[in-house]
Amino acid sequence: MGCGLANVRANLTLGKTRGHSRVFGVLAGLVAAICLLPIIAVVLAAATGGTETIAHLLKTVLPRYAGTTLVLVLMVSVGTLFLGVGAAWLVTMTRFPGAKLFEIALVLPLAFPAYVLAYSYTFLLDHPGIVQTSLRSITGWGPRDYWFPEVRSTGGAAVMLVLVLYPYVYLLARAAFLQQSATAFLAARALGSSAWHAFFRVSLPMARPAIAAGVLLAVMETIADFGTVAYFGVQTFATGIYTSWFSLADRGAAAQLALCLLSFALVLAMLERSQRGQARYHGAGKQHHSMPPPTLRGWRAAAAVLLCAFPVLLGFILPVIVLTSMGLGSEQALTSRRYVGFIKNSLTLAAVAAVVTLGAAVLVGFYRRLVPGRFSAAAVYVARLGYAVPGGVIAVGLMVPFAAFDNALDAWMRDSFGISTGLLLTGSIWLLIAAYMIRFLAAALGAYEGGQLMVHANMDAAARSLGQSPLATLRRVHLPILTPSLLTAMLIVFVDVMKELPATLIMRPFNFDTLAVQAYRLASDERLEGAAVPSLVILTIGLLPVILICRQVGRR
Asked: In sequence order, what are the beta bridge partners of 95?
């Protein structure tokens, strides 16, 4: 009798498990389909755009967009490589005055959106700015009597991007250096190599996959950037998409430009994944014996301090001072009804997007653990693709099919019932939330999977043996353990949504502006002092995840 009852309970538990697995599979598949939709839509829209459009683009703007984007990518790659790797090596493998402080401070520029940095340096270095005005007043020179670097240029945009993106390389390179054993490095020194020679021939090759992954992440952010290049008047694929969509009202051209940018981004994403996969094979880099860090003295210590202070000063301290002085001199009031509306809209979008994105990440990640296989692995892979797709491409990929659906539905309702439904989905908040989810799902999924490492497989087996369904296991076992990781993921997505500009500009509902849109609009009208106020609010919120990262770095 007891055995029969046990068998009945086991069968019920097995049936419930299979039923929940199917539900999780359907939901994970739906999330993956949503993430794949803009990519498919861009490809189809570009294919139906006609050869005339692409031929016209090839003759006019496409070579310029491609050349400028490539130059920008090369400059950012070199800049982030030298700054990130050099700073990571100094603070990890040597000791000098202030090294512990720089370990944390070097991460701070990550809180800045690149376009906010562009506003502050334009106010500082442009022709009517403080620096050139002071130079003319001191020397008595006229505008044509001297040469000064043009901040609104491709080189200026590259410098802005390098200053905010080098922490990607710094964090990954520092983690790789921390994991290296001293054995290989000391063996090279014992064989007569200098410290520099041993660094270039031993330490750097072992850290190469992590460094390459950091540089590729910086490059993907570069090609996705819109605010900086648009404000500086640099013509890239990102600005071309926006111009074609709004200024020229040519959706075919916008889709074809988006397809070019998408192809480049997906190639970079595959390179980044391959570099991450290669990192696991460098077994010699694991920390068997910690490296005794040498203490730098004299001019070497001074050079190390200057090298580490340079990006912190230019990428965080100076822009904060400039923005604060700009904001105090502006007529923008954060307490006004208008600004309260901007803040409310930004917080609403960011909060809803963070919850939705985290829920999607939990669905996909837990299904991958619950039912390992090709389908679940494919769902995770597709969910990660969104990070490689720029916001402008996602916006075009969602607007094209949903606008066609809305127009078709409206035409059918007019013909059948004489009722106009208007635009039900296009221009709605929920379509914008979907764009945010697609763009930032990879970040939430990464944080969730990192926390899942703390949940041993035996816990799942114990829960099943006690008759718990997969949903109950997720709710009672996984989520309580994963709470810190989930909160971190929500905060990262929240801040990323606050900073996101191209998708918000293209897809936001009518008369629904955010802090990022307000800062961009004021800066476009050359009202930089006014743009400083929403920029400072975005920066303040952006410091939250950076502080979390700094705490983790400090613990390690």
From this structure: 295
